[in-house]
Amino acid sequence: MNRILAGATCVVLPLAAWTALPRAQADVDSEPDLAALMPESTWIYAEGPGLAGLFAGGLDHPLVARLLGSELGELFLAQAETSPEDALERVEERLGRSPLKALEAMTARGIALGVGYKRGEPVYAIAARGGEPEEMSAVLRDALGWAAEQHGLERSQLIEPHGRIRGAGVWYLGDELTLALEGDLFLASNDEGRLRDMLDLGALEEAAGLASRPGFAEATRGVAGDELAWAWFDLAGLAQVAAEPVKNLRAATGNPGLQFLLGPVFCALGSGEAAYVELELDAERLALDVESFGVAAGVAQSVQLPLDARPPSLPSAKESDGARALVYRDLAGLFRQRTEMFPADVLPKFAEATSTLALFFGGADVTDGILPAISPWLGVIVRPVAFDEGATPDIPLPAAAIVARLEDAGRLGEQMFGAFHTLVGVINVEAAQNMQPQLIPKLELVQADQVLSAHYVEPAPGGGVDLRYNLVPAVALVDDAFVLATHRELAKELVGQLRRGEVEAPAGGGEHLSLEGAAAARVVRDNAEALAMNGVLNEGKTMEQASGEVRALASIADMVERLELFTQRPTAASLRVGLRVDFTERGE
User: Fold this and answer.
1) Residues 152, 62 within the same domain
2) N or C end of the chain, less CB within 10 A?
3) Which residues touch 212 (CB under 8 Å, ≥6 apart)?
């Protein structure tokens, strides 16, 4: 029987592998929606409206052709044992028909995956509406017949249905997989009871199933039916059935490291009652949206992105910008609410951070005096800079800067400059103990604004200029805008922009990050040799392997014109995260 199950995977896995991309609207109004065929006890549901289109396009689909024709695709194909065309031809010879055409026929009007739990174990179900019933029957018979031959069985053992339920032909492939075909509807499940439930729902004139659940209806009411894929997750339900990833996701609000790194929206996504995920993909763009509904109230709401968010203006974008971001980090709220938000075992680290920061700020009360005066909105700008002659690092990196607005800027600005002085002193003490170069402070004026920086002594001629020379830290204050940069030249550029009024107000009211693919590709290629050598020395790879991976990374960046990530808070109880990737015209 295990051999039968193994053969069955040849039928089911090609479908299941694509069910992360599920849903097509039914052509006949009387047909139950695929969600209506899933029992209400379903915890995860996914549909792929655009799946049949991908199968129909095959290797000639614009996106597939672009990927295969790119440098990344060429690198992949060079390492593959066979070409995609040859692989498909081999399957077609054995199956007796084109595998892509077969899958297109089986998913012509939609495919869906539902996951529930029974006695603590996951129960999977697939529902697919195809084209003509006769064609679907022929495809299934051919696939089952092929599976039988591959495992030394008589074709008749799998081709003919083993029984019928509500008129549908049913195949029992061991105790762990059941298939059913009724007209243009194909069903599969690892639990016979779940498949019977689906057939029962399909027999009802007004089948409701999962579609009748209020939470599901609310989360999916925006489904248009032309998405490539969408999915719904019952987060509250999954957390009750020992789904470890979901439990970890819901615990993210209590992790200070994630709060600092990812921010309040990302950390609270898992605390909702349900989540909706939508994917759209074509040759020009990838769009991924995640929305969480019924987000739990609590102390974490005090540091959440505000509903009436009004981000401050930032220095205007330049063509040379490699990346820009606007993030929301209510550091004052995190420190103030730390005992309520975070577990006791991490609180000593807050105490340590408070003491350390107090030393830099001359003993000032950081929690109540410093952090509340710094706006939670932080702008981040990444640009290439010109290094001083003789001090260009062997691996030159772009410079990055943070721009923050200050309350009582005159008083706090002086404290910020003092903290920078102290930081440089601490770095120099440690450098002296390790016989390393020291930072030399420098104060200069840019349009009457002070820029305080520190740089390493220029290395001796003929010697290498190591990675540390990328760091020429600097701070500046223009009215209430405080600038902290990894390089003096970027700080001076931003000071000039701020003083000239070259600023722009971010749109959308939420967090936003953008990354230029060309800039990322340039950094990778400029440092290709060093990156490859790092793979050889630190990861034990051959130079050929490491160089290939670096070329692949650069190729991925080449394919991307711009990557954008944003967060929003549409209502008090919902959060949204979006990703947009615009591909270059040539894709290489």
Assistant:
1) yes
2) N
3) 36, 40
What domain count does the chain have?
A: 3
What are the phi and psi torsion angles at 418 (to 5°)? -65, -40
Distance CA 11, CA 95 (A): 11
**What does the pLDDT read at residue 298?**
73
Distance CA 446, CA 500 (A): 11
Residues 279/230, Cβ–Cβ less than 8 Å: yes
Residue 516 lies in a domain: no
pTM: 0.86
Distances (CA, A) of 242 to 39, 237, 276: 20, 10, 21
Task: Based on the fold, state whether residues 42 and 100 are members of the same structural domain.
Answer: yes
Q: Rounded mean pLDDT of 145-171?
A: 83
What six digits make up the tokens of 416?
Answer: 């910020």
- Asked whether residue 228 is domain-assigned, the answer is no
What is the token pair recorded at 9? 């995977």
- Domain enclosing residue 356, as ranges: 312-505
**261-287 tens-digit pLDDT:** 999 999 999 999 999 999 998 888 999
How far is the C-alpha of 226 from the C-alpha of 257, rounded, in Å?
A: 39
The residue assigned the tokens 């070409």 is 83
Query: Do 296 and 361 share a domain, yes or no?
Result: no
